[in-house]
## 1
Amino acid sequence: MNLDPMECDLAVIGCGIAGMAATMFAVNRGLSTCQVGSPREIGFASGLLDLLGIHPISEAKPWHDPWAGLDALVRDVPQHPYAKLNKSDIRAAFDELLEFLKSAGLPYSRHPEYNSSIITHIGTMKTTYGVPETMWKGVEAFEQKKPCLIVDFTSLKGFNAGLIVNRLKPSWPGLCAARIDFPVNRLMAEVLPEHMANTLATPNNREQLAQLIRPHVNDVEFVGIPAVLGLYRPTDIASDISQRVGVPVFEISTMPPAITGLRLKEAFERGMGEKRAHYFPRNHVTGVKHEKTGRFKVSIGPDNVSQTVLSKGVVLATGRFIGGGLHGDRTNIRETLFDLPVYQPETRTKWHRVDFLDRRGHLINQAGLETDDHFRPLASNGRPAFETLFAAGSILAHQDWKRMKCGAGLAVATAFGAVRAFVDHFRSKNYVSK
């Protein structure tokens, strides 16, 4: 079935954090926007919004002050995508994102000028910037080293309270652990976080959970549990369970795919519901053509349903290998939609270092698209491939977001820069929708 072409100002390709953020920035600026792609990547998100945690990678140097870390990063790696933005731009991008998420029912907390430390499911402390409000009491408990109980569930795999306590107790003496059955599912061999989250939407089930936790509270001042406190309204559910238990209860991220990623996806979709965004989830782009008029013709699948979008600009936020933005074969790495040049090691033999755990990381992790200062991907001649094609997120070159702990920040900041560049490009022509 072929549908009539849909016209818009901006087409966003990709539904990870970069794509979601680009759509949010676009509709906030009055642009008619179409977004297409699979949200599979965002399901692996921890829910934490990293800004910059480590630099340089080879020294694994952590930064308590991410803004000072950005100064050092831009000085040392002038090709890094962050170098194309001012710190005021990055601050503005984060402020706008957090306000959007709050209005969509997913509030975050942070120390605006420095990073926080938060417990992980493997018993380490992670440096991050933006923290879901349901996890913030865990930040406070760690900062004050308050007596804290970590709870796990008999049938939940990948989360072990005893392991967390054993690893952290040398620096946090007031920790203790407890294992309980999850209410309603006590006879099941395994329970999944999504099922647990849906179960806790019911007040009666929350009371059953609180009754199981209360005997273990004793003299502790905080309780940490896996991030299963509802897919919707998690802050309200956490507050309700805290009142029932008698002390603040906070969440700890679980193994991906996780509820925290699904919450981000749902929050973005809810927040876009009343705005000028047309959303095509679980679809894919079957082809893109740049027409002589300067517009892009974007064809959207699946194969038996064809929708065509005619847009004045495109933000490419397709991610790297998991997202499908990049593909590696036996000889090289290529970009999958426009066949744009990809910055990469000279030969495949240089993709990886000899030592798998080399502290410098592998060169393939810095492969991606090179852009001009307006986030327009460069062609082989070093000039922008198209006047109104922009790129954002992990598909960009000269960054290793996993080791630098800057994934969400990179996605949000570059999406902000790309959308702003698109608006600036047409402002003098009065060409975008009002």
Note: The chain has two domains: 6-103+262-427, 121-252.
## 2
Amino acid sequence: MTSLHMLAPNVYHTTLANGLTVLLKPLPTAPVVSHWIWYKVGSRDEPTGRTGASHWVEHMLFKGTPKFPAGVLDKAISRTGGYWNAFTYMDWTTYFETLPAEHVRLALELEADRMVNALFEPKEVESERTVILSERQGHENEPLFLLGEEVQAAAFRVHPYHHEIIGDTADLERMTRDDLYAHYRTYYRPNNAVLALAGAFDPKSMLTEIRRYFEDLEPGPEPPRLERPEPPQRGERRVEVRGPGETFFVQVAYKVPRAANADFFSLLVLASLFTGPVNLNLFGSGITNHTSRLYQALVETRQAVGVGGSLSATLDPYLYWMIITVHPDSDPDTVLRTLADEVARLQEQGPRPEELERARRQAQALFAYGSESITNQAFWLGYSAMFADYAWFAEFLPRLNAVTADDVRRVAQTYLQPHRRVVGVYLPTGGQA
């Protein structure tokens, strides 16, 4: 008999006989349950010729099973007053339902069913091909997508983080129904999944329900992984993209460690200080970055009209992005010189005490805002398991608090080096974007 053990205060963990990881967090604050199923598959698992498969498979799981035809799925959730969605990322794909606690069996039954019984009817595959190609074409009208795709491809020449999650047009045009179905049957297995629930339930009773729906599902072989570590970057790389519009954009991406690395929390504080607090949660709100160094150095001096930053929690080393919209009265070269000066200043002097404290507080506040609801609590249960473990989430605030000025200066000196970065510039050619 599967039993629960306490992973942290009020957090329970077990693994079913078929390998499904179960994480439960009872929260009796409202009569609601948020139910998430996470699969350890994303764009990093796609070989050349199959890019975009994970995202396309996500679409297909909304097209129904014999038990839950496509039209029934959405109506079944909406009738309960619940909502649902799904997301594909580089390292994972996830599906969730947040609904009244009395209807949680619907979510369990639905996700257990479509883990194994999604239809992938040929006509639906072709319909989604059109949808996804149209989505891809829409992105290609956006300068920042075009520039970001080139920067990411230049940053990763070996590792499968090389390509965008949506996939390359050549692959989207040629992948077959059998290609997609094989991807689904390879990775959508209980032993490659994490089930995370938070809300109003008794853990033992909930485990009984989970076993009822999931425990008889057959595990599969250990899924293949594309183990292709990116070799060290030995010099700065630069890319230019020309396209319609009137605005110059600059993207600078520095190679940084994975989320499980001890330096990740120091980099979070650095990002908060330098470009503004980073939101790791899909549902979290934003906080102004007007106190960040790069905003003050570029926007307040009219070299830029906007500055942003991004640092992602990933399974493998990824990127710290800086995204700059150049002011009409300035130019990319001026912006890049100012950026280099600000990086050098941080490396040489480190942050001032009050500046460090503000950066930490902002990072903590953004984390808190993104952890309040029952949906967010269930999200973090599974999300942290995709690249680390629940302790990573539980220790988030203490580890941010422990970051010192010397830590920020050290990671700036270590990771914000020219040979670790890719510089991308979007050169507008006029006309409509």
Note: The first strand starts at residue 5 and ends at 8.
## 3
Amino acid sequence: MSFGKRDRSIVDLLFILALFAVFMLCSMFIVLFGAKIYKKVVADSDVNFSARTTQAYITEKIHQHDHDGGIEVIYEEDKPVLKLNEVYDGVTYCTYLYENDGYIKEITSAEEHEPYYSTGQKILEVHSFDVDMISPSLLKFYITDSFDEEYVFFSAVNSGAF
């Protein structure tokens, strides 16, 4: 009896190659599925970022202008515009937040000057932007972002006067 020696056959080699091939296939599928999951996580993160950024930006602008007569909702060509008023050295300046050419835009001008809405600073890409005055102390926003995600949020106005 010879325990140390064994004859090698083609079956042993094929078994090792088959085992290696199964290992490689499993590794490839794990990498492909991981990439697909990662791509979905990044896309969801982009949507979440868009929604949060828009909400935070608009809410912060409202809080900055939250005083008596500081916030109005006006309509230009049947589109809602959030008009934020501020007085500096006796001159009233207005900041307008609105949707134009697929973006939420912002423009600031003195009250006596008519704003050119097409020249506003692009803030964030959206498909639609709408705002309703629910009460003198509550605004309701409807936004469809560039990912076609629709969301609604509310912003309270502490001064309670528009």
Note: The chain has a mean pLDDT of 88.
## 4
Amino acid sequence: MIDNNTSTDLEFHRQFLLDLFCQLAYKEGDFVLSSGQRSSYYINGKQVTLHPQGALAIGRLLLSQLPKDTQAVAGLTLGADPIVTAVSVVSALENQPIPALIIRKEAKGHGTMAYIEGPSLPLGAKVVVLEDVVTTGQSALKAVQRLKDAGYQVEQVIALVDRQQGGAKLYEAAGLGFQALFTIAELQAHFKG
């Protein structure tokens, strides 16, 4: 979306982010994931998304990946909260402000009883869903459905890391485009290298 970031700058941010994921977020051991699956590794994306330079790199990289007609970014709380915020803040710094929306897992228990927090957008607004780590893809798909139920148009999901365990196929079956900054294979190769 932003043309004034040179590919060299974006590559610098991408490499920095890959290093940060390997240093702070990637762990090997025996873990149970939110999907209920067991795994020999775990990625705690919040170690990177809540890191000041990590958030800046995420904001710059994801902003560059957004379609030009994007009117908002959104994601399911809690994992996507710092990601959508980083993209929104960087977009404001680039003088192309894109609002952030946060999708609750359960409707707000008081006031408006809303599932979606953030600025009101016109019906049909084009929203891109952002996610930290995709395994089965269910979290982002829940966010997509909530946004569509609210009258927004969602055609794409962008993640930081794709664990390559079915999420991409789920999104394809739902008619959504999908891309990730890193695959688990790339992250593990860098971690071991």
Note: The radius of gyration is 16 Å.
